[in-house]
Structures are given as C-alpha cells and as structure tokens.
Design goal:
- This protein has helices at 5-13, 24-27, 110-120, 138-153, 160-177, 195-205, 213-220, 224-235, 239-257, 262-268, 274-285, 289-297, and strands spanning 19-23, 29-36, 40-46, 50-55, 59-66, 69-76, 81-84, 89-96, 101-108, 131-132.
- The chain is α+β, with helices and mostly antiparallel strands.
- It has 2 domains: 5-177, Jelly Rolls (Sandwich), CATH 2.60.120.10; 187-298, Orthogonal Bundle (Arc Repressor Mutant, subunit A).
- Helix 3 crosses helix 5 (160-177), helix 7 (213-220) packs across helix 8 (224-235) and helix 9 crosses helix 12 (289-297).
- The N and C termini lie far apart (66 Å).
Length: 298
C-alpha cells in the first residue's frame, strides 16, 4: 500500500495535524506536528519506513513497547528523540509533564536516505542507528523548532525554507546517526564557485516566483542533498539565505530606479509583505526601505 505519511501520523496520534510540511511526493520527506493535551496512547503499529519522533515537551512517564516488549519506561526531556526502525511494531504510552505540548513526527523515505548517502559520498543508502530517547542533540532540537516555524510561515508546502530544513534534518541525522558504511566511499560533490553566478542569475531572473531547492540544485547539476551541503560550505550561506539576499538586492534596484510603492516592490521580488521585506532589508543594509529611498534621493 502506498504510504501517506500525514494520514499515518493522524491515525497514530488520533489528532488532526496542527502544522505540517509535506514534501513526500518531491523529496521523500514529511513532518507532522501534533498538539498534545494530556496522557495518550500512540499505536504506531509496524513502522512502514524510518521515522523520527521528537518531543517538544517534557514527558513525565514514557512507556515504549516494541514487538510486544517494554523497551523503556521513564521520563523523557523536551528535545529528545527516537529513531524508529522499519518493520518494528511500536506502541507508546505517554503522560506529559505539562498541560500542552507538541510532538513532531518525521518520515524519511528510502529514496531520500539513498540520496543523502550519495551526498555523503557513500555508495549505499543510509541506515540510521537505533536510538530511543536517551541522547541529547541540541542541533536536532533546534532544527525541529525551525522546521515548525518554516511550516507555519510557508505560503505553500514546497517553500524553499521548508524544503531546506527537510534536507538539513536528513543530512544531520545521517551524519550523526548513520550506521558506518562498508561500501566504497565516492568523492564528495564539489561546487564550482562559478556556479554561484549562474544561480544568482537564475534567482534574479524572476525573484518574485516560488523557488525550490530542486530547481537550484538542477542549475548546479547536483542532487538537492549534495547541493545544500556543498553550497553552504562554498558560500557560507544556506540556499534560503542566498535567495533572500538576492531578493533584497532586486528590491534595492527597484527602490532606487523606480517610483513603485514599497509594498508592491515587496510582492514583486518574492516577499510576503512590506514588513517581511523591511525586516530582511534592514538586516542586510542597516536601514528601512523607505529611508534607503529617501537617502538615495536626497
């Protein structure tokens, strides 16, 4: 049966997801976020693929049952996680330590794990270690919160920020919790610095449209996983930050060379609102768009 990860998460939690990122059809990644308001039993059943559960609240008592046996019974602190192995039958009985909290469920397809393996230089797909709530990983916890923010602010399920966070999480999990491979290691992809100009031209050609990570990777001739890893190493910027900076530059050109209202400029170059442009513009140039226009015309 074809997996619908969001539907699976709703069946497991018994709740409609309050926020989610569903890139399943394009990247093989989905994230479902559930509100937790009290004790609850989660019948995960036989896990269809590799899953990662991250609690964003403290759990007073957490009973993890795998294949009919109690594997763990104890507290779980906010930010900790479990890597669920495919094929294991899982039931969780959780009693929260707070009135309400959030549980993030990540679904990683075999296709995504294979691509991430290629990005790391591994000849075989990534297999994640068996972890169950006993590891502190501040970066994973922070990334989980950032993914929640991305899903809540995205205008569509394929937003660049959400897509970037999906690959960032997958790459981090593979780097830190990937089972060591015995296959030959291929050379890691290299980023020709001249490609930066091509990608800049691609973004600036139509900065107002939705730009995906897959499109940027295609310009560079790489897979999305390889692109996001090598682009950051080569430029010091994430693809999302790079696009934001290119949009700020496009806005600056229009502010200087036209009489368009700033609100219209914001939408024309891909920002959701004038205030959204204002935040990015001040961060890059130190002044508001309106003040920048006044200074240039003084």
């Amino acid at each position: 049966m074809r997996l619908d990860p969001i539907r699976h998460a709703e069946l497991v939690t018994g709740r409609k997801q309050s926020a989610l990122v569903n890139l399943w059809s394009t990247t093989g990644f989905a994230a479902a976020l559930s509100d937790v308001t009290g004790p609850h039993v989660y019948p995960f059943g036989a896990l269809p693929i590799t899953t990662v559960a991250i609690t964003l609240y403290d759990v007073r008592r957490h009973v993890l049952i795998e294949n009919g046996r109690v594997r763990r019974d104890g507290r779980v602190s906010a930010g900790r996680f479990r890597i669920g192995q495919p094929g294991r039958a899982v039931i969780v009985d959780a009693v929260p330590d707070v009135r309400s909290g959030k549980l993030l469920l990540l679904y990683l397809s075999d296709t995504l794990l294979k691509e991430v393996g290629v990005a790391r230089g591994d000849a075989s797909p990534i297999e994640l270690m068996d972890k169950a709530w006993d590891v502190d990983d501040p970066l994973l916890a922070l990334s989980a919160h950032r993914l929640v923010e991305a899903s809540e602010t995205a205008r569509s399920g394929n937003s660049l920020l959400a897509e970037q966070m999906a690959y960032t999480l997958a790459l981090h999990l593979a780097d830190r919790y990937g089972v060591p491979s015995t296959s030959p290691v291929a050379p890691a992809a290299r980023f020709d610095i001249g490609l930066g100009g091509l990608i800049s031209d691609f973004v600036r050609a139509d900065p107002g449209r939705a730009i995906t990570l897959a499109e940027m990777a295609k310009v560079a001739g790489m897979s999305p996983s390889s692109f996001i890893r090598t682009f950051k190493r080569s430029t010091g910027l994430t693809p999302h930050r790079f696009v934001v900076e290119q949009r700020v530059q496009a806005a600056r050109d229009l502010i200087t060379g036209s009489d368009m209202p700033i609100a219209e400029i914001a939408l024309a170059v891909g920002f959701s609102s004038q205030s959204h442009l204002g935040v990015a513009f001040r961060a890059a140039l130190g002044v508001s768009p309106a003040r920048f226009r006044r200074l240039r015309r003084a």
